[in-house]
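To close the section, here is one more complete example, presented without commentary so you can practise reading it yourself. The ligand is zinc ion.
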Amino acid sequence: MPLPKAELHLHIEGTLEPELAFELAARNGVELPYADTEALREAYRFEDLQSFLNLYYELMAVLRTEQDFEDLADAYLARAAAQGVRHAEIFFDPQAHLARGIGMGTVVEGLWRALGRSETSHGVSTRLILCFLRDESAESALETLAAAEPYLDRITGVGLDSAEVGHPPAKFREVYEAAAALGLRRVAHAGEEGPPAYITEALDVLGVERVDHGLRCVEDPALVERLVRERIPLTLCPLSNVRLRTVDTLADHPLPAMLDAGLLCTLNSDDPAYFGGYAGDTFDAVRATLGLDEDRLRELARNSFLASFLEDDEERRAR
Ligand code: ADE
Ligand code: ZN
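Output:
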């Protein structure tokens, strides 16, 4: 029995497996510039975050209808459930779809067709987090939030993702203030490729409750001390860090030292179709390679529920 866990850092578009990409391409008459799934998998050799994002955005061309978004989410939820995920807080990137002429309603309602029945169909409770693309303008983020207003009953929070370096959190102060005023929870990617100062800025300027990745906090002892003191959760994604070369190998990952320092770490899969593993695979990999004992693994699983946006009673039930 895999350890029950919550997944808090998961881009739904990053769960698009090559087989489903080709199936949706055929269904929608979209031509992919790869001969077959094997040729596509060959392209999964990344130098850094940007080289991954290029492929990630390119493959989104196959996602066109509500049915496509439903099928994508359903496939993820089935895989996650099989690996012990009981609760998933799922990111989506509406700007990448709006830019292709796909409406906000198509994306949200399509995802919701799978998410809304997920507790019954997969035993997984869910939340949806709308991410702004930080390499797009602040105005575009504001327009995106406005486009999401009719769907806010489906959306729990906002996040910030895409190319990090050169796009500090403060650029999005206004849209985060607007999101907070609408009652939305706030998270942001920070300290994945960007410097520790971006983590501080996400906390102080955007008011985030969790930091996605946050890996580079280890370079700033005063920041580590603050994150420990304030019990700020970090949603770490070790398999992603290896594939995007933010760490050399999994054996070099600072997770054990971060846990020893008292940081509230959680383990997540980020873009599992691209990075070689879902939530349970991630737990298995860190157990095997970083030598974490059962107590540490249980701590990570417990942290994932503590750091989630589930209410206390729901949280106990999910565990
Ligand atoms: N979008 C999808 N995956 C991402 C990641 N790891 N970092 C930033 N943006 C992303
Ligand atoms: Zn991410």
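Once you have examined the tokens, check your reading against these statements. Residues 5-307 form a domain with the TIM Barrel fold (CATH 3.20.20.140). The longest strand covers residues 125-133.
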